[in-house]
C-alpha cells in the first residue's frame, strides 16, 4: 500500500510517498514559496535525478495539484496513477487537549484543528489548508491527522500546569503542550528497541536538537515532562528563540525598545537564541566555526546552549528517578558530535559517560556511550514522516 505524507506550512508543502510493504521512500519533495512569486518544486524520486520546477502557484490547492502531477509524470514520477495512493497522512502541529493520538479526519476533527488556531496561529491554519487542498484533490481516500502535541498529552498536570491563576487554564487552556512529539515518540521507541527492553519499562531522555529544539523525559511509555511549553518558545536555547527567560524581561524590553506585542513576539522568536547571542548566525555550524577561530561571543553562545541542555538533563533525571538512556536527534543532535561531547562532559556523577571516539559520527543510528557508562547514549536519526505513514496505514486499515 502506498501512502502520501504531507506537511503543509504557511508558504511550503513538504511531501513523501512511502511504499508500506517495506516502508521505503519512493519520492520526497518540497514546494516552496506557495502563494509568493517564485514558487519552486524540488522533487526527489528515489534512485533518479532530482527535478526542479519553477511555476508560480497561487495557493496550497495549486501546490498540491502540481505535486500530484509530478508524482504520476511518466518521466520522473513514481506512480502510474494517483489511485495507487490509498491514504494521506497530514502533520498537524497542535491538537490541543483533544488528541492524544492520530485520528481519521472528518468535519469534527477539522473543527478542533480550527479551534486551536488561537493557540497555534502560525502552524494550524496552513496545516488545515494542506488538508483541505488534499481532500479536494483526493476525495475518495482516508486522510489522517498526526499531531506534534499528541505524545505529550500523556503528561500529568503537575508537569503541564503553570503557576498562573487557574482561570486562564479553564478559559484559555494556557498550559504546557510540548512539540516535536512525533520525533520524541519515534526516537524513544527506537531506543527501547536498541536496549531490547519493553518501551513501557524504560526511562528515556530524548534531545531533539534542531533549529527548534526540545527535550522530553519519558517513563513507562508516558511523557513525564518536555521543555517546550504553551508555545515552542519555551525551554532550550534555539536557533533564533530565547528559550527560558525571566518573563519580566519581556515587559522590560517592550518598554525600553518600544515594542508592541507583535514586535515582542518576533523579537523573542526570531531575533534571540543563538543568533542574538552570538551575533553570527542561527546555524550551529557557523557558530562552531566562528568559535573555533576565536570569536568569543560565538563561544559564549555555545556555552549557554550546552549549559541549558545539561540543566534539563539533571532536571529530567530527577523527575524520572534515574535514566536508562539519552537519545540525541535532529540536525545538531545527529551531526554535531562536538556539541554532544560538550553536553555530556562532566556528567559522570549521573552515570553519563560518552566515548569520544565512538561519538565521532554523523547521522547514523549508533550507541556512543563509554563501556562503563551506566546510562546509554544513542544517536538516532529521527523519522517523523515514517511515524505519520505508519499511523495513516493503521487508521486507514481501520485498526
Ligand atoms: P529544523 O528541522 O528544526 O529546521 P534541523 O533538525 O534540520 O532543523 O537542524 C538544523 C540545525 O542542525 C542547524 O542549526 C544546523 O547548523 C545544525 N547542524 C547540521 N549539521 C551540523 C553539524 N555537523 N554540527 C552542528 N550542527 C549541525
Notable characteristics:
6-stranded mixed sheet; 8-stranded mixed sheet; 37% helix; 399 residues; alpha/beta; 2 domains; single chain; 14 helices; Nucleotidyltransferase, domain 5; globular; binds adenosine-5'-diphosphate
Report on this model:
With 399 residues, the protein is α/β, with parallel strands linked by helices. The protein has 2 domains: 2-147, ATPase, nucleotide binding domain (Nucleotidyltransferase, domain 5); 196-384, 2-Layer Sandwich (Nucleotidyltransferase, domain 5). It has helices at residues 60-71, 107-115, 124-137, 157-160, 166-172, 181-194, 248-257, 261-270, 273-278, 284-292, 296-320, 330-335, 337-344, 384-396, and strands at 2-8, 12-19, 24-32, 40-45, 51-54, 85-92, 103-104, 143-147, 203-209, 213-219, 222-226, 325-329, 366-367, 376-379. The strands form 2 sheets. An 8-stranded mixed sheet has the order 5-4-3-2-1-6-8-7, sandwiched between helices. The radius of gyration is 21 Å and the shape is globular. Bound molecules: adenosine-5'-diphosphate (ADP). The site of adenosine-5'-diphosphate has 15 residues, from helix 10 and helix 12.
Strand count, sense and barrel status of the largest sheet are: 8 strands, mixed
First-to-last CA distance: 15 Å
The number of distinct structural domains comes to: 2
CATH class of the largest domain, named Alpha Beta
Provide the structure class.
Answer: alpha/beta
Evaluate the radius of gyration: 21 Å
CATH homologous superfamily grouping of the largest domain:
ATPase, nucleotide binding domain
